[in-house]
Fold this sequence. Notes:
The protein has 240 residues and is α+β, with helices and mostly antiparallel strands.
Amino acid sequence: MALYRDEGVVLRTVKLGEADRIITLLTRNHGRVRAVAKGVRRIKSRFGGRLEPFMRVDLLIAQGRSLDVISQAESISTYAAGITNDYAVYSAANVVAETVNNVIGADHERATAQYMLLISVLHSLSRHAHRPEATGESYVMRSLALAGWTPRLDACVVCGRGDDLGFLSVRDGGAMCSSDRTPDAHRFGPASRRQLKALIRGDWSVLDEAELNADVRAFVEEWGEYYLERPIRSLRLLDS
């Protein structure tokens, strides 16, 4: 089997047989990869704890027909240590992992920008740099923006006017004025629109001021579900 080396972040693991696991990773150069780690569940596994969720690792992988096989794994950054000891941070990290796994359309499609955003947000979460809920929801909006789904917030999506933008529609892609708003549009005030813009930019000078408004969090959840065509289940736990 052909071998390739890359670095990646473990997104999820699934048991396989008595001692193996299927590891889902986002890698820097090979996109999403699903690979078998043989014997990883044994006490004396050569992988140790390096193939757990939120670990960033240097990998040597053998290409397979349906699943690749991890031959070597060495730790680069142990984000998991700073994430798993705090429930709110752990919940936000699960939002991140679920979102990026769903944003990536197919395995082995290079997604370097998504990878760089992923390691940036995991680093932030592991250091407890900001509110975990805001960090997770900012990641959802920024990851979707990288994929091409950014709401239009500075002008009405129907008429283009830049004032009286008191409503927001997920289906129509952004802000609406009172004259052109559709029945599905939600009322959205200036303060909430400011927070939403900050989520998309990753502007922590705004996001650190106060907790996110309820309508902002509801919009992030609805935006993610609409464009990913499935709910972000971890986000529902974060909002509960």
